[in-house]
C-alpha cells in the first residue's frame, strides 16, 4: 500500500515540477557577524519566497524564476537585514549573510536579544539543543531512539515501539523527562515501562547532561530531557502538516496530522497520531533463554506487535505582558511482550503466537496517559513570573496468562498488575533582573502523587508521595563573555505506603509444630520523610569561537516505592524483588567540563565528567530463593564514575560534511555486596562516524542529502552479575532526505528514506531490556516517511 501511495505522490510531484525546469535556487549560509558561528532558525523572506536556516546556518530558496528579488532577514536577538539579488540564468550559491546582535528599546527598557545558541554558551551546565530539523531527519520508532545519535544519550529499549532515556549510563528515575514545564510522571521505575509521549509535533528539546536537581528537583540526578513548548504561531496565520510513515521490519503504518492557527491574541494547536505495527524481525531464527531453545517463525519476535493512538490540543492567549497556554494530551498504547520473556510459561501455553504477526496476545500491557498542563508567563517590568500547573493520570494494565504459582491458585482473569497513578504538579518561578549584571531566579516546585494498585500479582504497594522544593539561582555576568552561575535548593518529601495482603492463603508453620493457612502481608502502612540540600556553581567563558565551561553540582534522588517496599514476583524478569525500607536518598557529586570550538568550517569539542554517589541504589541478586525464584534485594553502595564525550566535524567541501563522536562511561562500586563491580546497564565504549553529502537538484528532487552513520561499539566485559558479557559490534545506517514541490509555490514536501542495520547484522545492545534474555537487536529495516505541509 505504501509503495503505491509513494508512487502516486512522486508522479504528481513530477508533473508539478515539469513546468518549473527554468527555475533556480538561491543558497548560502547565515553566520554571526562577531563569532562567525552558524545561526539556525533565521527567516529569509521575499515575495512568495521563503526559507529558514538549518542548524549549520545553511538555507536554500527553491524554485526562483529569473528576476530581481529583495529579501528580509529576521531572527530574534539580531538586527533586521535586507539584500537584493538578481537571478538570471543559473543557480546562486555560497551567499554569506552576517547578522549582528541587536539592542532595542521598548517602553524605556533596554533589551538585549540573544540567540538560543548564545544562551546555551553562557550557561555552565552541559546541554545540547535539539531542533525540529534534527528530529525530522533522525526519526525512529520512539522519541528516545530518535535522540540516540547525540553523544552521551542512549536508551533502554523494550521491543520496537518503546524506550526510556539513559544519560551517561544512568536511566530509570535518575533522568527527568519534562514536557511543557511539567515533569512526566508514569511508572518509569519498571524495566519494561516505556515513555508515553508522542514524538510528533515537538519543535525543540534541551538535553542536560549531568546533575540538574537545582532547578528540576529529585529524579534529575543524571540529567534532563526537557521537551520545550512550541513557538507561538504568527498573527492571523493557519498551517498544518501530515506525517506519513511506513517500515518494513515490523510492517509499521503510521500517520500524524497537526494543525495550528492564530488570530491576534488567541491561538490553538491540535494533533492526532496513529501507529500500528506487527512483530518485529531479528537476524536469527532461534533464542536461547535459560538453556531452552525457542524457534522463531520467519525471524519474528513473537507477540511484539502493538498499536498507538495519541491526540492533543492546546488553546493559548498572548499579549504584551502575558502569555498563557493550556495543553491537553492523551497517549494510548497496547504493546505485546515477547512471549518467551515472561518467565518460561510459554512452553506450555495454548496460544498460537505464530498464527498472525499483527495480533497482540498475552502477555501484553495497555497504557493510557492523560495530561493537562497550563503554562502562564507574566512580564512585569524587571520581573518575569512563570506558573506551571499540571495534572496527569497514568493507567497501566499488565496482562498475562492466569497460571497458578506456588500456593497461588489459578487467577480469575488475565489482569496481573494494575497501576493507577494521579499526579498534581505546581511550579512557580520569578526571574528578576535588578541590573545588567545579575539574572536572579527564585522558584518553588511541588508535586503530589497518588498511586493505586490492582490485579492478582503484587509487586509494589499503593502509595502517596508529596515533595516540595525551593531554590534560588543567580546568573552573574562578569563581563560580556565571562559568566558565573550558582544556586542552592532545599527539598522535603513524604512517602506513605499502604498495607497489602495476598488474595490467597499460604501455609505457615507455627512454633508448636502445627500449620496455619494465612493471608500473607506483603506491605505495611509506613510513613517516611526525606529532606536534602543541593546546589551547583559553574563558570562559562566565551573566547571568540571557543567556549569553556566548568560546573560542580550536588544532586539527590528520593527512593521510590518499589525500592522501599516491593515484595513480590516480577514475572517479566523471572525473579522475586524485595525492597528495603531503610534506604536513604541518593546523593551525587559531579564535576563537568566542556570545551567547544566551532567555526563555519569545522567544530571540535570534549565533555569529560567525574561523578561520585554517596549511596547508589540498585537491585542486588542474592543467594536466597523464594520457591524456585532467585530473590533480588534493593541495597545501597558508594559508586565512583567518570567518562565523557568527544565530538568533531568538518565541512570538507560545501557539499560534504564529516562528523565523529565517541562516548565512554566507567563505573565502579567502592562498597557494598558488589564492591569492585560496575553498576547495572553500564553502556560500553561507543563511537559514531557520519558522512553527509548535499547534492544539487536531481530532476524533481530538491537538494537531496545522503547520510551514512557507522556505529562502532566495543564489547562490554565490565559487568555486574547476573549480567552477561556483551560482544562488540558495528552497524551501518543510511538515510536520504530531500524535498519535493507538490503544490506550486507552497511549502515543499519533505521525503525521507532510511535503512537501519543495512547488513542485517546480528548484535546485542547491552542496555536493551531484551538483552537479559539473549534477544538480538532488530534486523534490517527500510523506512519511508513524508511530511506534507499545508
Keyphrases for this structure?
22-stranded antiparallel barrel; Maltoporin, Chain A; disordered N terminus; mainly beta; 2 domains
The largest sheet, given as strand count, sense and whether it forms a barrel, is:
22 strands, antiparallel, barrel
CATH top level of the largest domain is Mainly Beta
CATH topology heading of the largest domain? Maltoporin, Chain A
Number of domains: 2
Mean pLDDT: 89
Q: Tell me the overall shape.
A: globular
Strand content: over 45%
The CATH architecture category of the largest domain equals Beta Barrel
User: Roughly how many Å apart are the termini?
Assistant: 23 Å
* Rg calc: 27 Å
Overall number of strands: 46
Helix content: under 10%
Tell me the number of helical segments per DSSP (H or I, 4 or more residues long): 6
Topology:
Blueprint: H1 2-18, E1 24-32, E2 43-46, E3 49-52, E4 58-64, E5 67-74, E6 81-87, E7 92-99, E8 103-106, E9 109-112, H2 116-122, E10 126-131, H3 132-137, H4 143-146, E11 153-158, E12 162-167, E13 175-179, E14 182-183, E15 204-209, H5 213-216, E16 223-227, E17 237-247, E18 253-262, E19 266-277, E20 286-289, E21 292-295, E22 306-318, E23 322-336, E24 364-380, E25 383-399, E26 415-432, E27 438-454, E28 463-479, E29 482-497, E30 500-501, E31 506-509, E32 515-518, E33 521-523, E34 526-543, E35 546-557, H6 561-565, E36 567-570, E37 575-578, E38 586-598, E39 602-626, E40 629-651, E41 656-669, E42 686-694, E43 701-713, E44 729-740, E45 749-756, E46 781-789
Parallel strand pairs: 1-7, 13-16, 37-40
Antiparallel strand pairs: 1-4, 2-3, 2-5, 5-6, 8-9, 10-15, 11-12, 13-14, 15-16, 17-18, 17-46, 18-19, 19-22, 20-21, 22-23, 23-24, 24-25, 25-26, 26-27, 27-28, 28-29, 29-34, 30-33, 31-32, 34-35, 35-38, 36-37, 38-39, 39-40, 40-41, 41-42, 42-43, 43-44, 44-45, 45-46
